Amino acid sequence: MMAGGTLAGAGKSGGRTLIYLARHGQTPLNESGVLRGLADPPLDETGREVATDQCLIDRDYGQWTGISRDAVVAQWGLVDRAPGVEPRSAVAGRAVKGLSDIARRYLGGSVTVVSHDAVNRQVLVAFDAGLGDPDTIPQDNGCFNTLLWKGSGWAVLGVNELPEGP
Q1: DSSP secondary structure string, 22-34?
Q2: Regarding beta strands 110-115 and 2-3, do their DSSP bridges make them parallel or antiparallel, or are they unpaired?
Q3: CA-CA distance, 52 to 44, in Å (whole number)?
Q4: 3-class DSSP state for residue 127?
């Protein structure tokens, strides 16, 4: 598993890589609607067993980390207009690079990568512009998105998929 990006499992199968881009589970910060940014809570015992890829860490909200999204929007109109917020293009650039590196490293396999809603949305639009405005793409807690890397590029096979209940 690849958290923040967290990486798990790899099997061989031809010249492609299947990536499941998941959103991490609920935290007290995302449940309360505050911008988490780089305020990375400490990992528990299970979390310490995974690798972290800095290309897939959450968006940097700068001084707005820990402030409610609504308060930032009330002051600046959009989170993107608040000073010190990492530009969407920078988030997309580093995340696409990170995922492409992972896909090449595990060519022919399947990999689970865990990241954050702000990162996932930018990746999804970078790989499929037809998905529209990143802010409208659902990313429920614990969801996964299915991506396929073929040497010539990416395809989005599924968005905001949730595991079936018992």
Answers
A1: EEP---HHHHHTB
A2: parallel
A3: 14
A4: helix
> pTM for the whole thing?
0.78
Report whether 53 contacts 114 (CB < 8 A): no
The residue among 124, 133, 123 whose CA lies nearest residue 98 is: 123
Where do we find the tokens 């690079």?
97
Quick one: which of 39, 54, 58 has its CA closest to 7?
A: 54
CA atoms within 13 Å, Cβ hemisphere of 79: 22
pLDDT tens for each residue of 54-110: 999 999 999 999 999 999 999 999 999 999 999 999 999 999 999 999 999 989 999
Helix then strand then coil, in percent of the chain rounded to 5, is: 35, 25, 40
Determine the pLDDT at residue 22.
83
Given a cut of 90, whether residue 30 has pLDDT beyond it is no
Question: Residue 49 and residue 51: Cα distance in Å, rounded?
Answer: 7
